[in-house]
Amino acid sequence: MKTRPGSPPPDEGPGPPARAAGLPPPAERGATVIPDRVVARIAAQAARTAQSRRAALPADGSEPAAPGASAATRTGSVRLHLTMDLPYPTDIPQVCERIQHDVAERVAELTGLEVGEVTLTVRRLVTAAGASRGRVR
What we know:
The chain is of the alpha+beta class. It has 2 helices and 3 strands, in the order H-E-E-H-E. The protein has helices at residues 36-54, 92-111, and strands at 68-74, 77-87, 114-126. It has a 3-stranded mixed β-sheet.
């Protein structure tokens, strides 16, 4: 069998020889670092999803403000702070607890970080436009 000069012998294949044997194990090659702002954006999207699923906002056509989020990452774990609108009336403690749980679960799933704490601040309570009443006399 003839080969061209400079081409690999037929038993080696077209690519360069594999160097996998010389590489360190994957755990020793380095770490993936996810910036805080990226984790915060993931948390904000997870909060938006949890808000629409857990807190039935009034269907009067008005959109609540998008949830806000900030994150602080330290050695493999993250602390999240969320701000969002909630409907009125609602069971605020129960809804907040469920949203915190959903966001923590989703952020851990997508980033691989341990979520140590999720704090949630309610910016405002949103009522249906037709339900607003004037003062009672």
